[in-house]
Amino acid sequence: MAACEQTALCGRDSITETLSFPELGAESPSTPSLVQHPNEELLVCLFCSESVPLLQKDTLLRHLLLDHKLVIADIKLIANLPRYMVYWKGRFLEQPVTDFCSVIKTNSTGPVEKQEDYFLLCDILPEDRILRERLQQKRLEEVLEQQQKERDDCYFRRQCLFCSEECTGNRACLLNHMAREHSFNIGLPDNIVYCEEFLDTLQYKLDNLQCLYCEKIFRDKTTLKDHMRKKAHRRINASNHEYDRFYVINYLELGKTWEEVQSEDDRELVDAEDYDWSDWQAHPVSAVCLLCDHQSETMDQIYTHMKDSHGFDLHNLKTELNLKFYQQVKLVNFIRRQIHQSRCYGCQKKFDSRADLMDHIISEGHVMKLPEMSTWDQPQYYFPTYENDALLCTLSDSNEDEDDVTCHNEDIPVIAEDISDLRALKQNSVLNQLLKDTGSCRKEDG
Hints:
mainly alpha, two-stranded antiparallel sheet
């Protein structure tokens, strides 16, 4: 049974097995990080009927250790602990625990009657490692899908945490308003996920008269407001890991916080003994064609090559199908996977070689032919087919240019934080008169 399970999980065509482009260095693939999201799911014991809410997981882990002599390694790195427990509960019903766990004998040099066997369940076992990776991938898919929904949501409506202003349209409107008017910046909208729950958490703290930064409790709202303004505490406490699940960066690498991810690259570059950068050389990332092994140093060159040499126009497909960002990612990964497997992405016909495949695609006119969207618009194609695929870095939403124009027209001057009456400041500012004079001069010149 165990062998069958591993075979099913480790299929040769697994979409999460990243490949390497020809003549490109293959680095170690990064593992998607998964931050557990507390909820009301139940954790079940692997051996008996005991169960507890997820938030009380320490109680169940203690029960497993004391009553069943079992320890689960790296518990905090498991993406979905309830599903993990259910899976192993089923496996332990099929086979004895010793088939899966390492056995640790305590007091091995003492009398036999005082020796005890403890069991360690960890990812050294291939089946356990594969299960953890699948749970990680599933959680990452959920986060990315939720983020896309929030980016597309145009029916958002919520009142500001600090004033009576009601923001409608998209969540970015409220976040930008709080950053602009109240100097409260919790990050870029596209870096945040589960935004509604994040705002609910912040609102709950403020309603309970708690400072969001130092987390002290105050006697009334006026005192809290003055404290946060004077102490520059209009920000969240970055060391409070309660907020981690609301930032996409915390889902990127297994077991690493956002601080570790951000500082990792800098630590690798720091050299305490040599600060001479004169020998530093840039290594441009080459973009690889979707249909052949041709590489170019710029994105414009690779798009031109694909269009002129193969008749493949990715920009045109994006426009015609109105593809969102993540749909473009899945389409690119799908086409790369099909080409790697010598299969026509248009009709799904399999060939013995890459040359036969390309002859078929050209002769049958399948270069710009795509199958039904349900064939390639699948969660498995969120994951890159090749490591360091530079083509994925150039994708963008179809309406990105329009959004950029809108953003550039919304430049707003920075106003000191300790000015309480912003509305009065805007009305009485000398800038208003200067703008009126400038407008009058332009009319006269016209």
